[in-house]
Each structure stands twice: as structure tokens, then as C-alpha cells.
């Protein structure tokens, strides 16, 4: 189906560093608007709720990119894809910085999210180039870049907006994306000659992989349970932090997200564990850490210490689980990594959206303990993906 693919064992440290840096810079583009909805609303004379359409558009755009762009990595030269997508993303972010109205900004931010799926193109390539015995470690470095970009984007975006206005956030994002993206292109190997594959054939093959591969299904189930639990807690965390008796401001509560950077530092450790112990055991460990965090955080309505412990543990559990589960999913067939990653990430993203929605509903009906119980239910469902594949 595809002709010449890069050989395993060709992953240099320089290439791995470039992929990790590029992943962190580009994934941040999805989250740039989250901390600056207030200033955007003021500029266009809209309510914060209306300005939230920019964040929604970015999430929808990323979903579209996962489904419709990533599979092309199994057919096109991924080096050229990274370069093209980096340029397109930079142009769309520049347009976002100059947007004359809220609807235009929402459209441009959404389109930029479609093209900012570069990290999910790099991960299958890294897996394919790495020695099979070191795939978990290699993937974990790229995931460390991802989590750093996700957590750091919210802090950096708010600081830039305070210094130079919200438009500077998109302008700086454009510059960084272009420079780092093109630098990464120079470090990446070409895919060589590849047989042309009909685009719709790529998309039609997705259900078949999910149907035929029990290892893929179980990896997706473990990750879906963990990511839904993570989002149930992470989406509502600011609500309990700003409510009595804690009473933090929104800005202060946002700094709690910096605890998530601990998980970035631990990513290589998780990768080595996958290589030595296997993805099934490490995936179960990730679910266990998340369950521990949810149980501790039940006390968080009145205990700040419980919230601090849980806030540090939740991203760690998610990172450990993803290092294992994504490795398991892509190892099913590294040559079809683009399509396998599409299935894995799309199921993860949809589960995360469900976790956010049900977590918010649980908070409204039962308060913070209801959120933690909801997270535990998702984690219990994720354990059905731990059984050994026969």
C-alpha cells in the first residue's frame, strides 16, 4: 500500500529533540485563546460567553484535522507535510492576529487548529524510525514536548496579552510555528518514493483497523477512560478553587496548571517503563494514578492540600497512560501509523469532550465530590482495556 518507508533504528537525538520542540510549539496553538477570552470579548464588544466561540472553533478544527489530515501521513511525504502545515498554520495565525471581527477570528483560529496537527504526524514517524526496543522512550520525549506546550500555552498566552495585547499572542504563535516548523523539516528524513493511495480509501480503512485489531481497541479504551476522567476534573478544577472556602482568583487558579509540568519531566521515565514492562502494565499504572488522584481530591471541597496533591498527580497519570497506550496503538502496524493515530487520538478526543460535559454536569448537580466520582466511573470503564489480548 505504501512503498518505501524509513528504516527503524534511524532516530537521532537531534531529530528527536526537533520533533519534541516542534510538537510543543505547534500544539500550543490550540490553547492560545483560552486565557484571553476576556480581552477578545472587550475588543469586539461581545460577552465572554460569545467570545468562547473562538475556543470552540479551535477544538472543532483540531478534531477535523485529526480525522481528515493525519491519515495522509500514510500516503504523502511527511517531511513535506510538516513544512506545508507549518506555513499554513503561521499564515492563519497572522490572520487571526489581524481579525477585524469575532466571527472572522473564530473561523481563522478554527482553520489554524486544522493544520496544527503536526505533532500527530511526527509521533508515528518517530515510532517508525526508532528501534523497536526503544519506541516507548522515543515517543515519551515527543509527548513531553506536547504536555509542556499544552500547560505552558495558557501561562505564556496570558502574560503576552497583559504586556502587548491579545493580538500579540497569535502573532508570536505564528512566528514560533514557522521558525520551529521549518527547522524541524531540515532535521526530518524524507519518506522516499511512496505508492499513491486514494484519500478516501485511507479514510474507509479506519473502521477496519478498529474491527480487526483487539490491541488497538483496548489501547483506545484505556486512553478514553483516562482522558475522560482527566477532563472531568481539569474542566471543573477552577470552579472549586475559586469557590469558598478557597476563594482564589481566576488568574491564581490558572497557575495550578503549572503543576502539570511535572508530568512532562516524568515522560521519559514513563517511556522507559513501557519499553521494559510493556504497554499493558504501564497503561494500568496510569489508570491507577488517576484513580488515586480522584480519591484524594474528593476531599478537595474543604482541603487545599488534597487539591494540590491531586492536581499534581492527575497529569502524571494521564502522561504515563498515554505513553503506554499510544505506543500500543501505533505498534500494531507502524507503517499505518497515520491511520492508527487518527483512530487513537479521535477516540481520545471524543472521550475527553464527554468527560468535560459530564464533569460540568456533575459539579452542578452534586458539587466537587460528584466530579471525582464521575472520574472514577470513567476510570472503571477504562480498566476493561487492561485484559490481555489473546
From TrEMBL:
Its membrane topology: Multi-pass membrane protein
Transmembrane annotation, as ranges: 12-31, 51-70, 82-99, 105-127, 139-157, 163-185, 220-241, 247-269, 281-298, 304-321, 342-362, 368-386
Principal place of residence: membrane
Domain Major facilitator superfamily (MFS) profile intervals: 15-390
Subcellular location(s) of the protein: Cell membrane
PANTHER family according to UniProt: MAJOR FACILITATOR SUPERFAMILY (MFS) PROFILE DOMAIN-CONTAINING PROTEIN, TRANSPORTER SCO4007-RELATED
Protein name (database record): MFS transporter
